[in-house]
Amino acid sequence: MRSPKARAKVPWVGSAGQGLVRVREYRCTACDGDPPQAEQFERASIAIVRSGVFGIRTARRTQILSTGFLLLGNAGQRYEASHDHGVGDRCLVFDFHGRALEDLAESLRRGVGAEPFAVNVLPPDPRVDAFRRLAQDDLVATSSPLGLEELGLSLAAHVLSLSGTGTARSSAGVPDSRRARDSIVAAIAEIEEGATRELCLSDLAASAELSPFHFLRLFKRETGVTPHRFLVQTRIRRAVDLLRDSSRPITEIAFDVGFTDLSNFINAFRREIGVSPRHYRQSGLSSSRRI
């Protein structure tokens, strides 16, 4: 994936894999006020945002991405990246070579003969974040290309199930404004900063200077999920890192990320990740990595 970041002479780091899938970690130093530039995806790719906030404009629409969001690109698709809400970002990028993604889409009986991705942006998904963390662990451990290919294709199968495939979806008739995106960026930051507390819709809407109903519709339109789902998924994504980085008791992790009941945490984790917190800590996503 090429972008204005490349012109800032910020290299790809942590690249691995030479077969069907290559995994790369990318760091961007673009600033607010830097002009967007027309670019294109060289290969089909999935980029998982690790930090930062930026905008993507395609022929479909302009959308914002922040920590945990996914940027999906079809080979040859053009886009513009802008940084109106802060400085830089970091992404973990999966590049798919040849017809790897098209063949996978066809095997799933979705959009045969069409582009793999029908959308360019997806909201944070805890299972994707679990795949992301496993890939980072593999990069650090200089894992074999076979392991990264398996992980990348399993990630792609899950993302395809979330995004669908086929011809591009039109956003005609959907209002699209900088003010609306600014409001949602602020709401995302408020949810992430207050994820360990109980938040209420009226307070989030008041911060955005919108009615609760209008805020709810706008948040879901811009992110793909409701504020409550975004809050729960934020907590689960933080639990994923704690389970991989520490040996702390699962009960302690559940309370630290914002859950007030252990059973609710375990049920939410299993629903979002596909395995229990204990299983993920012990053996990753072994049962979910098979296609």
Structural overview:
The protein is an alpha+beta fold and 291 residues long. It folds into 2 domains: 4-163, Jelly Rolls; 177-284, Arc Repressor Mutant, subunit A, CATH 1.10.10. It has 11 helices and 10 strands. The strands form 2 sheets. It has a 6-stranded antiparallel sheet with strand order 1-2-9-4-7-10. The longest helix has 19 residues, at 145-163.
Strand order of the largest sheet: 1-2-9-4-7-10
Assess the beta-strand content as a share of residues: 15-25%
**Class by helix and strand content?**
alpha+beta
Looking at the overall shape, the CATH architecture of the largest domain is Sandwich
SSE arrangement, N to C: HEEEEEEEEEHEHHHHHHHHH
Instruction: State the CATH class of the largest domain.
Output: Mainly Beta
Number of strands: 10
Radius of gyration: 19 Å
Poorly predicted runs are 1-15, 166-174, 286-291
> How many domains make up the 3D coordinates?
2
Report the average pLDDT across residues. Answer: 81
End-to-end separation: 25 Å
The global form is: globular
| CATH structural fold name of the largest domain | Jelly Rolls
